[in-house]
Records
---
Amino acid sequence: MKNCPYCKIEVGGNLKKCPLCQSNLIGEDERPYFPKQTTLKIQSFFYKVQLFIVWTIVIASLGVDFLFHFKVWPSLNVHWSLIVAMWLIVFEFGIIRLFKRGISSSRIMTLFVFIVLGMFSVTAYYVGHLWFAAAWVAPIVVMGTLIANYVLAMLDKSGNAMIYLLTNLVVGIVPYIVFYFSERDCPVTWIVCLMVSVILFVGAIIFKGREVVGEIQRRLSV
Ligand SMILES: [Zn+2]
């Protein structure tokens, strides 16, 4: 047992400094309390490296754009470096938020897709291709997510399939409703997307019906 001559406390493990006053402890080392966390150290090193690179790019592009007035896209009616900054900063927050433990892979994926789609729409709007993004890119990406989500729901052993599937259904229906109420013709891609989401929902009921019913009962405690 080690002890601090100033605080008169005993400290287990192999700490070098007193946790209260930071003076050197005296006495024999014991077996360390905590295992060494080398992977975490490596991860945090790479995290710092990429963070440094990201900030270098953000600052450099802001500088080149605002101070040198360099244009990469002639028809762009906003500073391009702001779009670069948006992507990279959201990417950083994404890394912090999404790679916390205890978030299901389905949720990570769905959130990730929506964040990317949101930023993509902003970019497309300023570059002048919003309609193309809304009618083709977004529905195809969403369809891919729906299918991946469905596969995850089928593989899920912890009885949370219903959440994936309801998400899928909502994601399929909402764009259609938005187009309906904005009195624009719904692009055929979004209609296909709606059909895919309903088909996957039906498929889930057919293949996992019993578990889904069990889950509804558990969640609503009926
Ligand atoms: Zn002390």
---
Amino acid sequence: MVAMNFSNKLSSIKKKHLYRSRKIIERSKDSIIVIGNKSFVNFCSNDYLSLSNNPLVSEAFQRGVRKYGSGSGASHLVSGHSRAHHELEEALADYTGQERSLLFSSGYTANIGIFSALKDDLDWVLQDKLNHASLIDANQLIGLPLKRYTHNKIESLEKKIAKQSGNGLIATDTVFSMDGDKSDIDSIAKIANSNDAIVMQDDAHGFGIFEPNIPINSIYMATLGKAAGVMGAFVAGSEDFIEYLIQKSRPYIYTTAISPAICMAIMKSLDLIKQGEQKEKLISNIDFFKQIAKELNLPLSDSVSAIQPLILGTSESTMKASLRLYDSGYYVSAIRPPTVPNGAARLRITLCADHTRDQIKQFLIQLKDAIQ
Ligand SMILES: Cc1ncc(COP(=O)(O)O)c(C=O)c1O
């Protein structure tokens, strides 16, 4: 029997500066979070469009609870699939220009769900080196070898694909979660086309901010807990593909459907996303952030998205910078291996629509100081 003694293992994680801990958020509003009795400006939330606190979204959520109660009570294929789920799926299909969409309880399960449905149909999978952990886990769970091409290098994908035979899938993040750069979906689709492979994109960090670019005969997954400000995820594609997922995707079939009230909240978020006002504010904040960072000579990576990483290298230096910022009232968590490659620990700074210009400027001044 394996001894239930983990203290040595925990000490070893601590020694490597890789120990992870959670902060308890007491309240949050307008990019401000309260931890203990101190307020912080949050620069690491994925609530890019600041919709998680939007009063119209909260009201829709409450209306949903009044109409359906708190939970769905069952999986989709039993009695958990409400009118609210169905209408949201139709709205998401419409928004992405696809025939149908299917809701999942999270992006992690959606990725596992896609791979698990395709398990018997695939001979190989190729993944960008920097794809999200959920895509890597999904690949491993279906028992196919993990084959990765160099990050965002189309030539590397071409070389690797030439060595594959049978039916395959190319999987990529659309906006990379730790680097904030975008994949070249059009070029990937071209290569996939000429090799009879399927493209699957994970648009967790682009949905709501950039127009979806979904090549024909491809699979699109996006999450609803980031820019949409609520929770869950969806897969969009052809009528037949979605129906196939319903039949074959175990993480879809064997789990309780998310609450219908959540669907009503997401429906309101989608309306606000379509109106575009929050997106404009976010884009203007990203531009302002980049301009001030440049003036301060901060060595930020090149990213046009809400994710603006500052790579510091070691876990120790990144932890130090994160703590110094924390002491000055700014919350940016330190991202360390194995989330990012060894030697590429970073502050993953994220911008939101409701950050004020003053918050951004003061933060960057403190950041410069924190990394000295
Ligand atoms: C690229 C990417 N895909 C999938 C996920 C998982 O999404 P969720 O948080 O909804 O499980 C994340 C979130 O962290 C992500 O960054």
